[in-house]
Amino acid sequence: MIQIVFDSKTGNVQRFLDKTPFTDKQKLTGEEFLDTPFILVTFTTGFGQVPSTTQSFLEKNAHLLLGVAVSGNKVWGDNFAKSADTISKQYQVPILHTFELSGTKRDVELFTQEVERIVTKSGSKVDTIK
Question: Phi first, then psi: what are they for 55, rounded to 5°?
C-alpha cells in the first residue's frame, strides 16, 4: 500500500489533494515514522527552500519516499516549486509534478497519472475513491 503524505502551510496543497481521487492521504504533524512507501506533496517556502516541517519528516522517513510533487507560486520565477528539485536531488526520487497554488484540473490529471505510474511500477496500490 502506498500512501500520500502532505505538508500544507496555507491550505493550497490540501486543496489540491482534495481534488484528487486518492483517499489515503496523511497531513504531516511532525511525529510520523512511516512503515509503508509514500509519495510526498509539499510546498516551497522562502526563496525556494524546503519547509522545515517537510525536511524534518524526510530525515526520519526518506528511505520510503517514492516521489515528490510540489506547490509554488510562479511570481517567484526560477524559485517556483524549487523545493521539488532539492528533494529530488537529495533523496534520488522523481519529481511527479509541480503546480501553482492549489493547481488546476490539468495539474490534478497529470499528478494522478504520475501516481498511478509509480504505483504500477512498484507493484503496490493506492486507495482511490471508487
Answer: -60, -45
